[in-house]
């Protein structure tokens, strides 16, 4: 199985020659959970519409970009929202606003159908920038320099270790090897709290033989949830890159519906904080500069 996983592609390609690229600067947000300060809890990006800029969360775990209508009550465009009575997300009705022009940093979007949550507000942000905006594009995240680049084409002189991935509901699903077995974890930039999170049944043996070291009471779109961590020293392998994790997070039940989605869990940004990664949504590949 390891041999299969190591059939990753090292391509010589150079960010000095990225073509038709648009850049987005991001900021790290911090917050306390259960009295513990998390320095890099979320990535925020500037979202500008009708000449006003709002703070949005950069969240590849969201299959679509969403706005929270409470932030936009005084805008003109929100007057044209159409509520879809048959559709809900996070316990709220979903609405749409057609033909909108907006920008996220230097990324300009035109004539886009915006989706939103009705009667929803969250102090930390006015919405999420989801994975829908990057389909059929190259997405480069330079964590050390806090820069996101979106491009139609990619050429570089740097070596990138690429692995084949799946794209499910717009979201990137990575092959991850643990103890000689390949699992499929969704890469979620909005899950910065956790290195990896799954559910107990999926890693029963590991969880039962390990010590629980932490419990977090979190909110997922304002819905309360308890996530637990066990102490571990497992190696996590993605392509030719090996990472170590001292903790593995899980929920007692499959509250995130991982099994229904056909995935084993979610992984956040922790492994990549000193790296630049490339998500090739066109050709379904995930790369790490080596």
DSSP summary, beta strand count: 25
Reading the helices and strands in chain order gives HEEEEEEEEEEEEEEEEEHEEEEEHEEE
CATH superfamily of the largest domain, called what? Answer: Acid Proteases
**What is the average per-residue confidence, as pLDDT, rounded to a whole number?**
89
Q: What fold name goes in the CATH topology slot of the largest domain? A: Cathepsin D, subunit A, domain 1
Calculate the terminal CA-CA distance, rounded to whole Å: 22 Å
Strand order of the largest sheet: 14-15-16-23-17-22-19-18
Would you kindly provide a written description of the structure presented here, covering whatever features stand out?
With 290 residues, the chain is mostly beta strands. It folds into two domains: 2-15 and 164-289, Acid Proteases (Cathepsin D, subunit A, domain 1), CATH 2.40.70.10; 16-150, Acid Proteases (Cathepsin D, subunit A, domain 1). Helices cover 4% and strands 54% of the residues. The protein has three helices and 25 strands. It has helices spanning 2-5, 204-208, 258-261; strands at residues 9-12, 22-25, 27-33, 36-49, 52-58, 66-68, 82-89, 92-104, 107-117, 127-129, 138-142, 147-151, 159-164, 166-168, 171-178, 181-187, 196-199, 212-220, 223-231, 235-238, 241-244, 247-251, 265-267, 276-280, 285-289. An eight-stranded mixed sheet has the order 14-15-16-23-17-22-19-18, with no helix packed on it. A seven-stranded antiparallel sheet has the order 1-13-25-24-11-12-2, with no helix packed on it. Strand 7 (82-89) and strand 8 form a beta hairpin. The radius of gyration is 19 Å and the shape is globular. The two termini are 22 Å apart. Mean pLDDT is 89; it is low at 1-19. InterPro entries: Peptidase_aspartic_dom_sf (IPR021109). This is Peptidase A2 domain-containing protein.
């Amino acid at each position: 199985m390891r041999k299969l996983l190591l059939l990753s592609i090292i391509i010589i390609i150079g960010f000095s020659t990225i073509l038709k690229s648009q850049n987005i600067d991001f900021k790290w947000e911090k917050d306390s959970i259960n009295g513990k300060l998390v320095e890099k809890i979320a990535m925020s990006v500037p979202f500008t519409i009708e000449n006003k800029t709002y703070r949005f969360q950069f969240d590849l775990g969201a299959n679509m970009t969403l706005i929270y209508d409470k932030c936009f009550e005084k805008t003109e465009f929100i007057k044209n929202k159409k509520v879809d009575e048959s559709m809900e997300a996070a316990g709220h009705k979903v609405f749409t606003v057609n033909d909108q022009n907006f920008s996220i940093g230097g990324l300009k979007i035109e004539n886009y159908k915006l989706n939103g949550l009705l009667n929803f507000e969250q102090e930390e942000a006015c919405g999420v920038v989801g994975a829908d905006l990057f389909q059929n594009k190259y997405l480069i995240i330079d964590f050390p320099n806090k820069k996101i680049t979106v491009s139609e084409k990619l050429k570089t002189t740097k070596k990138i270790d690429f692995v084949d991935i799946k794209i499910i509901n717009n979201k990137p699903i990575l092959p991850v090897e643990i103890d000689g077995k390949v699992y499929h974890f969704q890469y979620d930039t909005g899950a910065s709290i956790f290195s990896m999170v799954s559910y107990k049944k999926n890693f029963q043996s590991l969880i039962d033989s390990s010590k629980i070291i932490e419990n977090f009471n979190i909110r997922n779109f304002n819905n309360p949830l308890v996530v637990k961590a066990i102490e571990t020293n497992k190696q996590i392998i993605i392509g030719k890159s090996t990472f170590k994790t001292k903790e593995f997070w899980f929920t007692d039940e499959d509250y995130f519906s991982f099994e229904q989605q056909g995935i084993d869990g979610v992984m956040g940004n922790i492994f990549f904080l000193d790296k630049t990664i490339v998500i090739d949504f066109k050709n379904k590949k995930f790369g790490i500069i080596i």
